[in-house]
Amino acid sequence: MLTLQVVRRELRGEVVLLTLAHADGRALPEFTAGAHIDLQLSDDLLRPYSLCSSPQERHFYQLGVLKDSQSQGGSLAVHALREGDAIAVSEPRNLFALDEKARHSLLIGGGIGITPMLAMAAELLAAGRTFSLHYCAKTRDQAAFLPQLEASAYAPQVHLHCSDEQRINLDAVLCDVPEGTHVYVCGPARLMDAVHERALAQGYDPDRIHQECFSAEVETGGQPFEVVAATSGITVQVAANQTIVEALALAGLKVCVSCKQGICGSCLTDVLEGEPDHRDHYLTDDEKADGDQILLCCSRAKSARLIIDL
After folding, report:
1. Of 33, 78, 169, 219, which has the maximum CB count within 10 A?
2. DSSP state of 112
3. What percent of the chain has pLDDT over 90?
């Protein structure tokens, strides 16, 4: 983990924009567009947030966080940070990277889902690659990053869609692009599902549709089963209303988790024996079919016993 300082805090309506840097100003680990960092907000509160600063900038990280009334503590803790505060963060990880072979990139960000698109636009502009960016918001007042986008070097490629004016026409947006375009979408589940559905209907290959979830509904309940943590020598019974993480914690084995929704991959663990019941949004269909990995925060077992490498 890195210890960084909040060197700037800017409130844009319900979104706080934080700039994090080393106190002595030295360079930070590099990252690519679409990457996120985990913020250690307390001993048991670790949350991932997308980087929205340019990957070409090595001396600070920026991230924007929406104040969420339904938050489990993450966004409220971020909004409580003040300039000068120190915070532990992970090095950047990228689960939402741009495809370098794409002939054109179509970026669609809904609400706070615009944040990774800002880094993507900066990276594509620096590389001289073509792209268009569509920003969906409820109202202009709630489009927290609109002034920044309007002042950017790629402003002509930016399109704003406000729900109280005119919603985005996905069919029109998805067809008004060059052949071989890759689509990147981040935002509310309803928007991402709609983009995925309409892109497939228009003939996009699934591998040209990319999305990043900030949250997802996941069903964690099911039949009880046994989990053996082979390395630790611990065996637990996972009850119908428990997750594997919760059962292991009661036995004294703490697993590092972040999103708790099967999105970020921080609790990914190898399966040595048994059949996982995948409930996550992280593994690909092929990886799930292999059956040799599991997300402990939400997935369960189809077999009576699961042996994991932990």
Report:
1. 33
2. G
3. 81
Give, in degrees to the nearest 5, the angle at Cα 30 between 12 and 15. Answer: 10
DSSP letter (8 states) at residue 207: G
Cβ–Cβ < 8 Å for 246, 257: no
- Tokens representing residue 244 in the block: 């594997």
> Could you give the count of Cα atoms lying within 13 Å of 247 in the half-sphere of its Cβ?
24
Strand, helix or coil for residue 149 = helix
In the block, which residue shows the tokens 């268009």?
A: 132
**Pair of tokens at residue 124:** 């594509």
* Pairs from 160-165 (Cβ < 8 Å, separation ≥ 24): 160/135, 161/134, 161/135, 161/136, 161/137, 162/136, 162/137, 162/138, 163/136, 163/137, 163/138, 163/139, 164/138, 164/139, 165/140
Residue whose tokens read 């620096």: 126
Amino acid at 129: R
Distance CA 65, CA 75 (A): 6
Q: Which of 182, 170, 55, 76 is nearest to 122 (CA)?
A: 55
In order, the DSSP letters of 64-107 are: EEE--TT-SSHHHHHHT--TT-EEEEPPPEESSPPPTT-SEEEE
Q: Per-residue pLDDT tens for 222-253? A: 999 999 999 999 999 999 999 999 999 999 99
Q: In terms of residues, how long is the chain?
A: 310
pLDDT tens per residue, range 29-61:
999 999 999 899 987 788 889 999 999 999 999
Going by C-alpha positions, the residue among 96, 92, 94 that lies closest to residue 105 is 96
On the question of pLDDT at 216 being above 70, the answer is: no
- 300's tokens: 């369960």
Question: Positive or negative, the Cα torsion across 262, 264, 266, 270?
Answer: positive
Interatomic CA distance for residues 250 and 243, integer angstroms: 11
Is the Cβ–Cβ distance between 125 and 193 less than 8 Å? no
